[in-house]
Amino acid sequence: MAGSGEFANTRFLTVAEVAAVMRVSKMTVYRLVHSGEMPAVRFGRSYRVPEAAVEEYVRHAAVEGHSETA
């Protein structure tokens, strides 16, 4: 299988683990996955998110010196 080694060292997180890391609900993570904002792999009926994808999403979501709340 060509390219099978690209995920050899990848750590995958469950939706619940991603939600805990990001401190959001599991439904929020599912919305991010279904909208394509966060890449995920489907194994059977469950999703796994590469740990690097979570780090990348948080890095790009962070806005330095600016708050969305009043």
Structure in words:
With 70 residues, the protein is α+β, with helices and mostly antiparallel strands. It is built from three helices and three strands. A three-stranded antiparallel sheet has the order 1-3-2. The mean pLDDT is 87.
Name the strands of the widest sheet in spatial order.
1-3-2
Question: In terms of structural class, how would the helical and strand content be classed?
Answer: alpha+beta
Q: How large a portion of the residues is in β-strands, by DSSP E?
A: 15-25%
What Rg is obtained from the alpha carbons, in whole angstroms? Answer: 14 Å
Low-pLDDT residue spans: none
The dominant shape is globular
Tally of contiguous helical segments: 3
Order of helices and strands: EHHEEH
- Write down how many β-strands occur, each being a DSSP E stretch of 2 or more residues: 3
The helix fraction, in percent, is 40-55%
Q: Cα distance, first to last residue?
A: 52 Å
Q: Characteristics of this structure?
A:
three-stranded antiparallel β-sheet; 70 residues; 41% helix; alpha+beta; globular; 16% strand
Short description, anyone?
By secondary structure, the chain is of the alpha+beta class. The protein has helices spanning 15-22, 26-35, 51-61; strands at residues 12-14, 41-43, 46-50.
Task: Set down the secondary structure blueprint.
Blueprint: E1 12-14, H1 15-22, H2 26-35, E2 41-43, E3 46-50, H3 51-61
Antiparallel strand pairs: 1-3, 2-3
